[in-house]
Design a protein that fits this description.
Layout (H helix, E strand, L loop, with lengths): L1 H20 L6 H8 L1 H11 L9 H25 L6 H15 L1
Helix pairs in contact: 1-2, 1-3, 1-4
Length: 103
């Protein structure tokens, strides 16, 4: 169960890391992009019966920061090749639409 929650935490944080990559460090948007996923993670822990054991913290904190890191890197890579916004889902949809139009 811990591995499933860690994967969910990782995937949840990718869009927030992408958003974080587009805003000024330590601004209110940066603060929101870092802290908005936390209540969802707490709900995951409670609803999936993970509890608050100390052994779960390293894996979940690691997956949290890895998701943020991957999202931020994704933003930097796409910024070099196309016009990007702060929303990962919007940029994915737009990039797919551009590919379809260019065919």
């Amino acid at each position: 169960m811990l591995v499933i929650v860690a994967i969910m935490v990782f995937l949840l944080n990718i869009p927030f890391g992408y958003w974080r990559g587009n805003v000024k460090k330590f601004s209110w948007q940066w603060f929101l992009s870092v802290h908005c996923p936390v209540p969802v993670i707490i709900l995951l822990r409670l609803n999936l019966g993970l509890g608050w054991e100390w052994t779960t913290y390293p894996m979940l904190v690691g997956s949290y920061f890895c998701g943020q890191l991957v999202g931020g890197k994704w933003y930097k890579v796409w910024k070099k090749s196309m016009r990007v916004s702060s929303c990962l889902l919007w940029d994915i949809a737009r990039s797919r639409w551009i590919i379809i139009i260019s065919r």
